[in-house]
Amino acid sequence: MTTSHLLPTPPEKEEAIYGAWERFVRGENEISGVRPEVALSWQRSRDQYQVDPFLAEAPAAVSDVTHSLEHDVVFSELGFRAAAMVNEVAGLSGVITIADANGRILSEWGDKETHRMGAEAGLAPWRCWSERAVGTNGMGTALENPRAVVVRRQEHWCQAFHDWSCAAAAVRDAVTKAPIAVLNISCWRRELPASTTTWLRNVTTHTQSMLRTRARDGGAELLAVFHHERSHTPAPLAAVDTAGRVVVADEAAAVLLGVPAEAAAVDPAVRWNPQLPELIRAAKYATERAGHDPDWAGSTQICTHLADDPTPVCIRPVFQYGNLVGHLVTFTESDDEQLPGEAPRPAATPPAAGGNGGQPHRVIGQRENRMVLMPGESVMLAETEGNDVWLTTDQGRLQAAATSLDKLDYELSALGFLRVHRRYVVNLNRVQEVERRDKGELFLVMDDPKATMVPVSRRNTRAVRQALGI
């Protein structure tokens, strides 16, 4: 990281941002001149987290700490990288911090005077810098975003931090996409070098690569355990990762889950979201329990679209070298611990347009300087374009507030949305026609006036056919 090519903010722009902040704090929604990632963070700070913009310092972090051993490895890796940059960061009169997924600062290094100034604002170990705690800031906002973020002075939600500039990037679990840790550099009344975000990206990318390799190894272990188990049980069988995504399923289980049969997905980037939200919730609960008790096994009942009565499911954790990598799911009765949950409800597939069991699901988009809140049925599809996610809706094409297509796929799967291509998630209720080309390629024709056509990738073709019943 070099100290050249600073990123100065012209005084007139600082005044414009501060004016937008004042109006937004008062309750107005005009955010002209504010970067999209900052505007979305302000919206979360004010409307979702209800953070006091006149908070004087970051609050103390709670002492209850729960994370896996793999997270400790990430903290150590980031600490090693940060320690190597201490002198350079101190030369900028800056400090470098590492925080966990809850925004709790674990370590801090750098310039002593800046450290002293930061301590007065709570920029110190065991203070909490999540967006929920203090609103828009480098660490908290990076935990909410898939990319490195820069938060300059007046862009901070709390007025007390308007003298600070921060840049941060988060490391995320390769399977669940949940944040594990965040690396941050802060300066007081001084701009950060343009190279700061490049260095942060390089460090987090290296760490993410290490996690992806381990996740692929975990997928291979799940596949091996699946093949061993299927020779011992006649019941429908699947292997899912810690987030509930399907690594592999046999013919019978694939029909129940709405995924292709025998299509092994060792790489976490290509695993399948089962079309049974109850199973995803059960798998996540199992992940939490097995993380504390390796001998745990559980069972529950879930509703599928193939039967009027709930289907019994047995879930058993799979470990590799002592690390939890996923679960075997067997559709059969079991005497294992019953998972908690509500009484089973009848399932519909796909959900009817217009709702989520009577509970409207809001999808947030952005048009110029305003947030647009829409019911799920008004969204036809979502697609990635570079690092952004865009929505095709009844109100036109809008940038999504969701930070990734994976996240949007998970959030909307219960409303009849399906990942049909690495670039597209489609609302199946808005599919009007299906076109088959000469070489067997499928295209979905949407019900908008333009009859938008969406390609279906070969690996997703079977799941689309099953979901649409064709």
TrEMBL record:
GO molecular function, one term: phosphorelay response regulator activity
Residues covered by the HTH LytTR-type domain: 363-470
A Pfam family that the UniProt record links to this protein: LytTR
Spans annotated as Disordered: 334-362
Alphabetical keyword list: DNA-binding
Domain of life: Bacteria
InterPro entries linked: GAF-like_dom_sf (IPR029016), LytR-like (IPR046947), LytTR_DNA-bd_dom (IPR007492)
Bias type Low complexity, positions: 340-353
SMART domains: LytTR
Keyword DNA-binding recorded: yes
Protein name stated in the entry: DNA-binding protein
